[in-house]
Design brief:
Blueprint lengths: L1 H43 L14 H73 L42 E2 L2 E3 L10 H6 L3 E9 L5 E8 L4 H12 L2 E3 L1 E3 L2 E3 L1 E9 L4
Antiparallel strand pairs: 1-6, 2-5, 3-4, 3-8, 6-7
Length: 265
């Protein structure tokens, strides 16, 4: 009987220990679940939120939580630095693009100003040409050759009837070539010559063929100013001429064209 009671007592102790061990396992499992849930909530909360460790957590769990917090803070810090650097680079690119755009705007404005200035200069030149006196009309002076009068035949006395002398030959009539100013424009006074007060007379020699076409042009007499000589020569080059004639027949000849350059006071 005593043996039976002792056996029952031993069996009861074993069952008690098993029951205590099961309760301990359940408590440990619940504790682990609490730690996992708490860690997940801490990661999902904002950075400013502080997670209070459960009083039931073991010291090793607290140390692990502190390490995770430090690692997360360091990761956030590095991420923030990368974001700050990327934002700074983006701002720098935006600033560079803005400077380039302003430079293009300034260049376009300067180009437009240069075009306006060039147009103003051309307009001023046109006005100066309009106000300056043009060259006085210079025409080639024809130099006709007057034929000598025909000698009248002598009449002999009715008695002697001598042989009359031969009739003098009629001199050919020649008309010089002349410039046709209706076919071209007179030269305009150069602005620089006006400002410098350049004046003078230019004589242009024009070699013409029988059809009054220009074969060669040259300056026969200079005005003393190369600019006036050049403008005169170019103006005569665009003109037509009337041909020189001899007894009404066109001939090749040289025409002289005289230009007088004079400013009005």
């Amino acid at each position: 009987m005593a043996d039976q009671n002792g056996g029952r007592t031993g069996e009861g102790g074993v069952f008690a220990r098993i029951a205590g061990s099961a309760e301990y396992s359940i408590a440990a499992a619940l504790l682990a679940v609490c730690v996992v849930v708490g860690g997940a909530l801490w990661l999902l909360q904002p950075e400013s939120a502080d997670v209070v460790a459960a009083p039931v957590a073991a010291p090793t769990s607290a140390v692990a939580a502190v390490d995770e917090d430090a690692a997360l803070s360091d990761w956030k810090r590095r991420l923030g630095e990368q974001f700050s650097q990327a934002e700074a680079e983006q701002r720098q690119r935006a600033a560079d693009e803005e400077r380039a755009r302003r430079a293009r705007v300034v260049a376009e404005q300067e180009a437009a100003a240069a075009r306006r200035q060039a147009e103003a200069d051309r307009e001023a030149q046109r006005r100066l040409d309009a106000t300056a006196l043009t060259a006085l009309t210079a025409l080639a002076t024809p130099r006709p050759t007057v034929g000598a009068p025909v000698a009248a035949p002598r009449t002999s006395a009715p008695v002697a009837r001598p042989t009359p002398p031969p009739v003098a030959a009629v001199q050919p009539t020649r008309v010089a070539a002349a410039i046709d100013w209706s076919s071209c424009e007179a030269p305009r006074y150069p602005a620089l010559s006006v400002s410098r007060g350049e004046e003078g007379v230019v004589v242009i020699a024009a070699d013409l063929d029988a059809a009054a076409r220009i074969v060669d042009l040259r300056i026969a007499e200079s005005s003393g100013h190369s600019r006036l000589d050049r403008v005169t020569l170019e103006a005569v080059r665009d003109c037509r001429f009337t041909p020189a004639t001899q007894n009404g027949v066109p001939q090749a000849a040289t025409a002289e064209v005289r230009f007088t350059w004079k400013l009005q006071n």
